[in-house]
Specification:
The chain is mainly alpha-helical and about 90 residues long. It has one domain. Helix content is about 75%, strand content about 0%. The N and C termini lie far apart (about 65 Å).
Length: about 90
């Protein structure tokens, strides 16, 4: 609740029109701010980093929650059958 109140107070005078007036486009092209951002090298560097990071995290998660391999399943069944037979 404190964050909501302080954020509202801090940004009360900020709006889209004022932001655009304070931060004009840096180039004269008609493509808009999205095209300007896509031409920036930092945008692509961050995109590549996040793509690799999320991919690595997804690999770790899927590695922990996959079914055991066929080899370990056969080994487990073989040990279980030998224990059951004796």
């Amino acid at each position: 609740m404190i964050e909501l109140i302080t954020s509202t107070w801090a940004f009360w005078e900020k709006n889209a029109a004022r932001h655009r007036a304070d931060n004009p486009p840096q180039s004269d092209n008609d493509g808009g701010r999205t095209r300007e951002a896509l031409k920036n090298k930092v945008t692509w560097l961050c995109a590549i980093f996040f793509f690799a990071y999320v991919g690595a995290e997804g690999t770790q998660i899927s590695k922990h929650f996959t079914l055991p391999s066929l080899r370990s399943l056969i080994f487990f069944c073989d040990k279980w059958l030998w224990a059951a037979g004796s």
